[in-house]
Amino acid sequence: MTTIADTWGLHEGHFWLRGRHPDQPVSFDADTGMWNVFGHPEALRILSDPKTFSSDAGRVVPEVRRPSERSITQLDPPMHSKLRKLVSHAFTPKVVADLEPRIAELTRELLDEVADPDRLELVADLAYPLPVIVIAELLGVPSGDRHLFKQWVDRIFESSQQFSLVKRSEEQDRNLAVAMEQVKHLTDYLGEHAAERRRHPRSDLLTKLVEAEVDGERLSQAEVVNFANILLIAGHITTTMLLGNTVLCLDTHPEQLARTREDRSTIPAVIEESLRFFSPFAALGRVTNTDVELAGQHVPADQLLMVWIAAANRDPREFADPDVFDPSRTPNSHLGFGRGIHFCVGAPLARLEGRVALNILLDRFPHLRTDPDEPPSFIPSPNMTGVRKLPLLTSGS
């Protein structure tokens, strides 16, 4: 059977996109020294229990840990809860809803700037710049610098290849060094803006981070930069992949595309099914705090778990016909945005951006479709599933 993944050459490690399912929901990989978790109930349990399954992957992968900084993605309660409050106010339902007119305005402006009336490249023309501009405006950094963000972030993802705790190689060390170098470019950039906010406060999210206090103490410069870094990267890459993946899902399922064009109220469900079918962030890391039993497997303490939420979103124990793109499936308990205390804080914004942009695309381009002579290309990381380029034809001929 030839699948979409085979046709377009998606990463060979993405077996769940090729109609295959693991023999066991949890298994140890001796080549990497990690435990792979593929099952939905097992993944849900791990993500929902921070007491047993820590987010501090730096305990076992010290190369990616920065002890002087408090990174919200690697923190457990109670500190995680305190720091998350600092940014959660920026993504309340009202704040997000109030952004809808600006998102629509930006979408139309970006599409107006497309030079060729017969085609567009969705990622470069819309799916990347739209969410970057929105999150940059929220943070208060120049959206005109988005070419720099893209350069640094692209190189981070291009360097995120298979990682092993037990079989170190020059290539792995080189890739990690490249990724860390790009992170430094981004943190240096944000550090300059954070320092400027200390001197000259504004009414933006970066200023609020600079002025915020936790247990009576201001965040350090490194902590502010780390927060802004996470928000800038996560605040745009999810929407970039979500929008591109959703358009691709509809293009490869014409009957669903026709239904969505006819009934726009189905767009939120289409987006949710896209998040399940082509989950942007394929894997999350967790570390066991104690010995634990998972799917009949004894997992010792201090073990790194790779929770493959993309595979869990194809678990037949949870989803009927998991390899079928079906926006009408109810309920749709996908883990595309994670679950538990680390549930993606920007999920409401990503959903809104996807809904607004998709509606405008369908309004403007009644014949929108992929180009048979120029297929899409995908982010080369095994830990992500998203289009890097998506050429589209827009004319009827």
Written description of the protein model:
The structure is a single chain. The chain is of the alpha+beta class and 397 residues long. Helix content is 46%, strand content 11%. It has 15 helices and 14 strands. The strands form five sheets. The protein has a five-stranded mixed beta sheet with strand order 1-2-10-7-3, covered by helices on one side. Strands 4-14-11 form a three-stranded antiparallel beta sheet. Helix 7 runs antiparallel to helix 11 (221-251) and helix 9 crosses helix 10. The radius of gyration is 21 Å and the shape is globular.
Show unreliable segments: none
Radius of gyration: 21 Å
Query: What is the strand arrangement across the widest sheet?
Result: 1-2-10-7-3
What fraction of residues sit in β-strands? Answer: 5-15%
**Helix count?**
15
Order of helices and strands: HEEHEHHHEHHHHHEEHHHEEEEHHEEEE
Find the CATH topology.
Cytochrome p450
> What's the architecture in CATH terms?
Orthogonal Bundle
- Total beta strand runs: 14
Provide the CATH superfamily.
Cytochrome P450
Average predicted confidence as pLDDT: 89
Structural class: alpha+beta
- Percent range for helical residues? 40-55%
CATH class: Mainly Alpha
Note the overall shape.
globular
Structurally, the number of domains stands at 1
- Major sheet: size, sense and barrel closure? 5 strands, mixed
First-residue to last-residue Cα separation: 32 Å
